Amino acid sequence: MLRIAIQSKGRLFEETMELLQEAGIKLNNKKRTLLVPVKGFDVEILFLRDDDIPQAVATGVADVGIVGENEFVEKKEGSLITKRLGFSKCRLSLAIPKDIDYIDLNWFHNKTIATSYPHILKKYLADNSIESEIHVISGSVEIAPSIGLADAIFDIVSSGSTLVSNRLKEVAVVMQSEALLIANNSLSEEKKAILDELIFRIESVQFAEGKKYILLNAPNDKVEDIISLLPGMKSPTVMPLAESGWSSIHSVISEKQFWDIIGKLKALGAEGILVIPIEKMIL
Ligand SMILES: Nc1ncnc2c1ncn2[C@@H]1O[C@H](COP(=O)(O)OP(=O)(O)OP(=O)(O)O)[C@@H](O)[C@H]1O
Ligand SMILES: O=P(O)(O)OC[C@H]1O[C@H](OP(=O)(O)OP(=O)(O)O)[C@H](O)[C@@H]1O
Ligand SMILES: [Mg+2]
């Protein structure tokens, strides 16, 4: 049994659940109790606050976890990054009241900075030879300057709208973050095998993202020109239609290529073009 720690509610919750569901992990229990078994796959889900996930995985309370890179780096617990998951992308930045004239990092000398990420901030300030006072608070960090609790903040930024609504401006990006799949350092062979299966399933889901299955009909004399435009996993599938002189062509294209390719296909005489989403892709 592989125990997976995930955030019980918050910014990571929805996308983590979606990813697990697409990977075939369906929770038996609709009510979110702390520890939930999974039907048909040898895993169980442990719901925690995200702050507690790095330690839970490092100590073996959970075998693997899904957590923000910011939280993983901050907690400095020894686990392995097994996979970068590409969602919950954000950055950790320094921000100051927007009306201040700011030239460079030296502004932070002898200032007080409010944050929930003291270790990451401390290292960054030391690396840049800046001496500031760090004031640790666990939430609502952006409000700190306006209530006189600190001169500046160091916190998560994504769209930047929280900064704007608190009359702050971002002056230095310290690290980028995304959700990570982390694993305990000393998993048993049995657990490693379940983890490999989990990673295989996640990769199949992620590989299919942004890809479309395309089907079209074309006159036989244009088949060669058309397949030169379509990459396909190996090469496109070509099948004869009931109507002589025509073929059906199937392939896989990336969403990005789609609008570029579609005009060229039509110009070559392609008809009845169908574009279908792909749920999973196994190479
Ligand atoms: N605005 C955002 N955009 C993208 N990702 C974000 C954003 N805010 C936070 N994250 C990511 O999601 C993680 C969880 O954020 P959340 O705000 O839910 O944390 P929290 O309030 O500490 O939750 P918990 O109650 O579990 O301790 C963050 O550590 C970060 O990696
Ligand atoms: O740059 P933005 O897009 O505005 O996102 C940044 C904000 O998002 C997070 O808070 P969240 O909205 O999750 O609320 P919280 O403070 O309750 O965690 C984070 O703590 C920032 O405050
Ligand atoms: Mg938290």
Automatic annotation (TrEMBL):
Keywords assigned: Amino-acid biosynthesis, ATP-binding, Cytoplasm, Glycosyltransferase, Histidine biosynthesis, Magnesium, Metal-binding, Nucleotide-binding, Transferase
MF GO annotations: ATP binding; ATP phosphoribosyltransferase activity; magnesium ion binding
Enzyme class: transferase
Reactions that this protein is recorded to catalyse: 1-(5-phospho-beta-D-ribosyl)-ATP + diphosphate = 5-phospho-alpha-D-ribose 1-diphosphate + ATP
Signal peptide: none
Pathway(s) of this molecule: Amino-acid biosynthesis; L-histidine biosynthesis; L-histidine from 5-phospho-alpha-D-ribose 1-diphosphate: step 1/9
Family assignment from sequence similarity: Belongs to the ATP phosphoribosyltransferase family. Long subfamily.
Entries under PANTHER family matching the protein: ATP PHOSPHORIBOSYLTRANSFERASE, ATP PHOSPHORIBOSYLTRANSFERASE ATP-PRTASE
Name used for this protein in its record: ATP phosphoribosyltransferase
